[in-house]
Design a protein that fits this description.
43% of the residues lie in helices and 14% in strands. With 391 residues, the protein is α/β, with parallel strands linked by helices. The termini are far apart. The protein binds D-malate.
């Protein structure tokens, strides 16, 4: 295929598409696979959201193009949620834009700010889309290592000054995928100072903002003094409402950044189906949201505790994460992350994600997604325990 663009030829296969292939291949061989790979919630979208979708999909008025800037009702619902949950005021006209899932906006934001030769600061390990979007836009990712000894926060003092000067964007993501780490208000305040010093934009991926445990409630980057001056925050309905397949998210914050993303998007996509946006309004404004999300947190917390306890019994020294539905654990001595994950799949039929898939600083780790029911999770953890013996 010599006609493929340089861009596509250099593009690695998407991590989760590759894992999906392995799952299918194992299932075809008759293996009883338990997939703790991709973070795709196993529970259904709540009925009050599905019902609203059913109503809206039947209304002919919703069948044509949505407004370019998104439905006013959806933008207002996002603003109302930010006010209620974070005490942040957003202008629904200028500071909110709907996305076809937050992944779409995260991939496209680099095109709005990054010229060839520019640098974007990207956490490693991290969601692969931060680097891919940067590379597609012609920029260079400068990795910010997330190390256990620094609680999986980037050490801003260690970012080379030259890279910081060339940087247009800094991607952050807390609660963090894949490590489960959380960030303090103090850290976000330091990131605001850094952004001001180097005149860059913070892109905060807040996809897991509602998935947190032990009474911990993540804050929005926009809650921090000066946050809205320097940041655009990406939100998603996927994980909060079990809506990964619906493709609905939003970007909020700095009006210049939101406007740039809106301008870019109107040139390449035609927005989110109106019925889906109305379903999003229902999700964010229905009084049943709070009890639903609280139940979801309890469900993942129980699963987290089952998996952490099993790993500890097998000899792992890990602490329960305070956010996301992922566990991030070191591979036993003598394995690479891919080697360990391959061994577990072969021996037990359990699918894990190799840390290396999230970047070079993910080497030496694997990730467990807590997206199967308690019984299957118990079973998966038993299988792992039986396959791994620490000496
Ligand atoms: C993951 O497993 O890391 C996520 O499901 C990826 C995503 O949200 O796109």
């Amino acid at each position: 295929m010599d006609r493929l663009s340089e861009r596509i030829r250099k593009l690695p296969r998407y991590l989760f598409a590759e894992i999906d292939k392995k799952v299918k291949a194992a299932r075809q061989k008759g293996v009883d696979v338990i997939s703790l790979g991709i973070g795709d919630p196993d529970s259904p979208t709540p009925d009050f959201i599905v019902k609203r979708m059913q109503e809206e999909v039947a209304r002919a008025v919703n069948h044509n193009y949505p407004p370019d800037e998104g439905l006013a009702e959806f933008r207002e619902a996002v603003a109302a949620y930010y006010r209620r949950r974070h005490g942040v005021d957003l202008d629904p006209q200028r500071e909110v834009v709907p996305l076809i899932g937050s992944k779409e906006g995260i991939a496209h934001i680099a095109f709005c700010f990054t010229d060839p030769g520019d640098v974007n600061l990207v956490p490693d390990p991290g969601y692969p889309v931060y680097s891919i979007g940067t590379l597609f836009a012609g920029g260079m990712p400068q990795l910010m290592p997330l190390l256990r000894e620094n609680a999986f926060l980037p050490n801003l003092d260690n970012i080379p000054v030259e890279s910081a000067r060339l940087a247009k964007l800094m991607f952050l993501n807390y609660p963090n995928n894949p490590t489960g780490a959380v960030a303090s208000r103090q850290f976000f305040a330091e990131a605001v100072d850094f952004a001001r010093q180097y005149n860059l934009i913070i892109c905060h991926d807040a996809a897991y903002s509602e998935i947190a445990f032990d009474d911990y409630r993540p804050i929005s980057f926009l809650e921090v003094e000066g946050g809205k001056d320097v940041a655009i925050e990406f939100g998603s309905l996927s994980k909060t409402f079990n809506m990964t397949g619906w493709r609905l998210g939003y970007a909020v914050g700095n009006s210049m950044a939101v406007e740039a993303l809106y301008r870019f998007k109107t040139n390449i996509d035609s927005g989110v189906f109106k019925a889906i946006q109305y379903a999003g309004v229902e999700a964010l404004t229905n009084p049943r949201m709070e009890p639903f999300v609280s139940g979801l947190r309890d469900l993942y917390q129980r699963r987290r505790d089952i998996a952490v306890q099993a790993l500890q019994e097998a000899g792992w020294q890990i602490e329960p994460p305070r956010g996301t539905f992922y566990l991030w654990a070191p591979v036993p001595d003598g394995y690479t992350s891919a080697g360990f994950v391959g061994y577990i799949l072969e021996q037990t039929g359990v699918v894990l994600t190799p840390g290396r898939g999230f970047g070079k600083y993910g080497e030496g780790y694997f990730r467990i997604a807590l997206t199967v029911g308690e019984e299957r999770l118990q079973e998966a953890m038993e299988r792992i325990k039986n396959a791994v013996r620490f000496s």
